[in-house]
Amino acid sequence: MTVIAGSLVTASFSAVMILPFTATADDQGPGSSKGGKAVDEAPAGVKLTTLLPEKISVDNSSKKTAITATVKNEGTKNSGDIRLLVVGFDGLEVTAVQGCSAIAEKDLPPGSNSGFSCAVGDLAAGKSKSYDVSATYDLSKTGKICLPVQTTDGKKTFWQQGPVPFGTVNPSPNAPATPLLLGTDNQPVAPGGDELPKTGVGRDVLPLGAAGAALVAAGAAGLWWSQRSPRARQG
């Protein structure tokens, strides 16, 4: 187990596996920042955003899918050291992110089922960095993903996309794969599927580990930012 110095996230490599993808970036359409919002003010000249594919495809047999997560600096100055978190909710479980470390289960917010922390580093102006995400999707549930962009210590979140859903209103259980669209609530493939299961975030504020980072549900898109505890501020 490796601890990310100065961060709110404990990295664990013991259960991390790179799984084969069922889709490629070429299959996913253009990137979209749908469900994203700036949170804390970024340094002057820095404008950070994230992109998710507008569509993904879930293998109906293996439940596997692939997602490309991109962080971009649309500003005129370098970002400084930043990190990207990739967090899964409900039926969407993130199983691996290439080059990134798993967030320990005890540090995940209630309502999430998986997460990875990616050390982006100092992102130059006008540049972007993409990560290959392996995931599974239980089509009997809704599924969401969240991409916060933070300082490496987690004290500030400059941008957060999500939790934003992937889903379909036209399930295809007998097909080899089911296409899902970004920003669409999933219609589960199950008896009585006209009523979505009660899954996901059940409280407005969710703690992330002992250091107190939080996920706040605010309408369709939650805002996840880090708040230091009084003890941490005094230290």
What is this structure, in a nutshell?
With 235 residues, the protein is mostly beta strands.
> For the residues shown, what is the average pLDDT?
77
Q: Distance N terminus to C terminus?
A: 25 Å
What fraction of the residues are assigned to beta strands by DSSP? Answer: over 45%
Number of helices: 1
- Specify Rg, calculated over alpha carbons: 17 Å
Q: How would a crystallographer describe the biggest sheet?
A: 10 strands, antiparallel
Q: How many strands?
A: 18
Shape verdict: globular
Q: Give the topology string: H per helix, E per strand.
A: EEEEEEEEEEEEEEEEEEH
What does this structure look like?
Helices cover 2% and strands 46% of the residues. The strands form three sheets. Strands 1, 2, 4, 6, 8, 10, 11, 13, 14 and 15 form a ten-stranded antiparallel sheet that branches. It has a five-stranded antiparallel sheet with strand order 3-5-7-12-9, with no helix packed on it. Strand 1 and strand 2 (10-12) form a beta hairpin. The chain contains one helix and 18 strands. The protein is an all-beta fold and 235 residues long. The chain starts with a strand and ends with a helix.
